[in-house]
């Protein structure tokens, strides 16, 4: 007797605010949408205790090939995309929640090749990129001449690397203005929206899309982490 179509099994990589939200939604509403939580991984496995059933905790990403999963959703850190993305694509579709990782050309090419070879799909969600579909359509038609994304945040919302961290201060300041490719390694957790814009406009890409990052202490600091 048929029991309907099989559910798509989804693995969540990362258990921060967004990862926890996705896990809750999959547990509460997944079945009605044909989805099932397959596993959850977090760098600090202790954070999973009492929140995720032991049977769904993946302790080591090296054991991913043993998992039965249709889609992996990464919401952890760009280094996870770099180090494990190709492995994920060898056995499942892969949604990159940290697309700043794709600013590294070797990583992008490796993942594209893994998707082609494995017959799976590499997804880049638009996230907070309003008008992403319009950008993509303009790029497809060959009419997109330029694109600049400006992001303004309270200094406490940033997690910066290198010289950018030293530019934070008590006054409003432009931290960076230039190609998004150069910005992604310096603010890997803060400019995923810019990276998504680069993927939506491949004719410009990470070298052609311009990014402007501004720190403004005058903004009200949000009580929760700023959007990725």
Describe this entry's structure for a reader:
Helix content is 32%, strand content 18%. It has eight helices and eight strands; from the N terminus they run βαββαβαβαβαβαααβ. It folds into two domains: 8-123, NAD(P)-binding Rossmann-like Domain (Rossmann fold, 3-Layer(aba) Sandwich), CATH 3.40.50.720; 132-215, Dihydrodipicolinate Reductase, domain 2 (2-Layer Sandwich). It is of the alpha/beta class. The longest helix has 14 residues, at 78-91. The termini are far apart. It comes from Platysternon megacephalum (big-headed turtle). Residues 14-125 form the Aspartate/homoserine dehydrogenase NAD-binding domain. One of its GO terms (biological process) is NAD+ biosynthetic process. Pfam families: Asp_DH_C, NAD_binding_3.
Task: Please tag this protein with its features.
Rossmann fold, Aspartate dehydrogenase domain-containing protein, 2 domains, Asp_DH, 8 helices, Dihydrodipicolinate Reductase, domain 2, globular, NADP binding, L-Asp_DH, alpha/beta, 3-stranded mixed beta sheet, 228 residues
Counted beta strands: 8
Share of helix among residues? 25-40%
Shape call: globular
CATH H-level superfamily of the largest domain? NAD(P)-binding Rossmann-like Domain
For the terminal residues, how far apart are their CA atoms? 45 Å
Number of helical stretches of at least 4 residues:
8
Strand order of the largest sheet: 2-1-3-4-5
Uncertain runs are: none
Q: Taking all residues together, what is the mean pLDDT?
A: 92
The CATH C-level name of the largest domain is: Alpha Beta
What class do helices, strands and sheet pairing give?
A: alpha/beta
């Amino acid at each position: 007797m048929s029991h309907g179509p099989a559910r798509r099994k989804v693995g969540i990589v990362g258990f921060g605010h967004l990862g926890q939200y996705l896990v809750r939604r999959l547990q509460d509403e997944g079945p009605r949408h044909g989805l099932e939580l397959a596993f959850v991984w977090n760098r600090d496995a202790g954070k999973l205790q009492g929140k995720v059933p032991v049977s769904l905790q993946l302790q080591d990403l090296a054991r991913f090939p043993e998992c039965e999963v249709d889609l992996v959703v990464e919401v952890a850190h760009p280094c996870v995309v770099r180090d494990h993305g190709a492995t994920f694509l060898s056995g499942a579709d892969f949604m990159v929640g940290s697309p700043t990782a794709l600013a590294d050309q070797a990583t992008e090419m490796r993942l594209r090749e893994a998707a082609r070879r494995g017959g799976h799909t590499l997804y880049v969600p638009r996230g907070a990129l309003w008008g992403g579909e319009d950008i993509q359509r303009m790029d497809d038609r060959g009419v997109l001449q330029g694109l600049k994304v400006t992001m303004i945040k309270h200094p406490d919302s940033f997690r910066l690397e290198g010289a950018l961290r030293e530019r934070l201060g008590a006054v409003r300041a432009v931290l960076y203005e230039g190609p998004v490719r150069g910005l992604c390694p310096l603010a890997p957790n803060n400019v995923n929206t810019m990276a998504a814009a680069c993927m939506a406009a491949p004719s410009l890409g990470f070298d052609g899309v311009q990014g402007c990052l501004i720190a403004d202490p005058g903004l009200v600091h949000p009580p929760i982490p700023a959007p990725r």
